[in-house]
Automatic annotation (TrEMBL):
Entries under InterPro entries matching the protein: Big_10, LD-transpeptidase, LD_TPept_cat_dom, Transpep_catalytic_dom
One GO BP annotation of this record: regulation of cell shape
Source organism per UniProt: Streptomyces termitum
Protein name: Lipoprotein
Top-level lineage group: Bacteria
UniProt entry keywords in alphabetical sequence: Acyltransferase, Cell membrane, Cell shape, Cell wall biogenesis/degradation, Lipoprotein, Membrane, Palmitate, Peptidoglycan synthesis, Signal, Transferase
Keyword Metal-binding: no
Keyword Cell wall biogenesis/degradation among record annotations: yes
Pathway: Glycan biosynthesis; Cell wall biogenesis; peptidoglycan biosynthesis
Residues covered by the L,D-TPase catalytic domain: 256-387
Length: 412
């Protein structure tokens, strides 16, 4: 009609008529593609089974729970930190103190929980970051911060040998605690002793305040031993917590084991499998015999005082300058120089109050004497074995003498 107006009819614009047609076509297309409208707004559609497909930006169904709650104070160092996931599985858990030192732990096999492998330190702030995924792979994360309790009562462990020292093959790791321990399992778990070359090392408690570690046999010469004390935060007894966190090492020197024969009155000094000297000695007299057994040198004094009153012998002796003395027991057994005895007694008569005496000179200044020779060639941790004495075997806790226990008893 070439744009001419028909009389009696309203004018209809061409563009409006085209718009109406397009709208109708769009409604027809939507009806053909989707059937009933799908809830969920833009981007929603139908799955293969006709069910609704979740939109890409839907929240994860996984729920992460962290105990203690965010911002908590005075949190217990053991048993309080727990991380769980519901309607999903944990994929990432990191826990670290304010210095960034991580706390070791592991996610359970089913992915629903995480717990630390050990206790936490006292008076320390920790940050927790945990992530879980739901069945559709959508992640849910949670971050919290908490602070552990500040202990009012603490204990320490005094240890031997010292760090960076070289000791003999009989040297155990011995730790004496300042408070009696009522949870030995927790304390022992917090101490790790390893060696290179590797060997099985086990701890043994003597009472409730001393814990020693050793291998089944003497250490091999040249072994490096590392001790990790992770006692900070360990509740050793109710309300009493450890306060040490330290790692140190020491080295095992050459192998020296000396054997005292109380009947023959000699000592054979064996170094790395070879007898390097046999020394005449004087052991305990018939009424004050020397203990039998394996004894470890725990202290060395070039000159020291020995007073019988301190070890149950009253005023029988008080020698203010005993030379070249090396302790073998807590109760007072030493191997030491003797300048006051006649030289003829060494190798022929047992005259001491239980010690092992070697010929020496007063003042410890003569390096040619047998006592000086042995002192100069001995390390703390060397073994002195006494046999054929008419006395009992020394108790394993009388000094560093746990070697007198069978391995089966040590680990029981």
């Amino acid at each position: 009609m070439n744009g001419q107006r028909i009389p009696g009819k309203p004018a209809v614009r061409r563009n409006a008529r085209l718009g109406a047609l397009a709208t109708g076509a769009l409604l027809l297309l939507l009806t053909a593609c989707g059937g009933d409208p799908v809830p969920g707004g833009a981007g929603a559609g139908a799955g293969k089974d006709g069910g609704a497909v979740a939109p890409d930006n839907a929240a994860s169904a996984a729920v992460v729970t962290i105990l203690p709650k965010d911002g908590a104070d005075s949190v217990a160092t053991s048993g309080a930190l727990k991380i769980t996931a519901e309607q999903g599985k944990l994929t990432t858990v990191t826990v670290a103190d304010s210095k960034g030192t991580p706390v070791q732990g592991r996610i359970s096999a089913d992915g629903t929980g995480w717990e630390p492998a050990a206790h936490l330190a006292g008076g320390t702030q920790y940050k927790v970051h945990a992530v879980a995924k739901d069945a559709d792979g959508r992640e849910s994360a949670k971050d919290t911060t908490f602070t552990t309790l500040v202990p009012k009562n603490t204990f320490l462990g005094h240890y031997t040998p010292e760090a960076d020292t070289t000791v003999g093959v009989g040297m155990p790791v011995s730790i004496n605690f300042t408070r009696g321990i009522t949870d030995p399992e927790a304390v022992e778990k917090a101490i790790k002793v390893t060696s290179q070359p590797a060997v099985r090392i086990e701890g043994h408690w003597f009472g409730n305040d001393r814990l020693d570690f050793r291998p089944e046999e003497y250490w091999k010469a040249g072994t490096k031993v590392t001790v990790e004390l992770n006692l900070d935060g360990v509740e050793g007894r109710p309300g009493v917590y450890g306060k040490q966190k330290k790692t140190y090492s020491f080295t095992i020197g050459r192998r020296q084991v000396s054997t005292v024969d109380a009947t023959a009155k000699t000592m054979k000094v064996e170094r790395d499998g070879q007898v390097i000297r046999t020394i005449p000695i004087s052991a305990g007299a018939p009424t004050t015999t020397t203990y039998n057994g394996q004894m470890v040198i725990s202290e060395k004094y070039k000159v020291t005082r020995m007073n019988g009153a301190t070890v149950g012998f009253g005023g029988e002796y008080d020698i203010k300058d005993v030379p070249h003395a090396m302790r073998l027991s807590t109760s007072g057994t030493f191997i030491h120089g003797n300048y006051w005895g006649d030289p003829s007694v060494f190798g022929s008569v047992n005259t001491s109050h239980g010690c092992v005496g070697l010929r020496d000179a007063r003042g410890a200044g003569d390096g040619s004497t047998p006592a000086a020779w042995f002192y100069d060639r001995s390390l703390i941790g060397d073994v002195v074995v006494v046999k054929n004495s008419k006395d009992k075997q020394i108790q394993p806790d009388n000094g560093l003498n746990g070697w007198n226990m069978d391995w089966s008893e040590w680990i029981s």
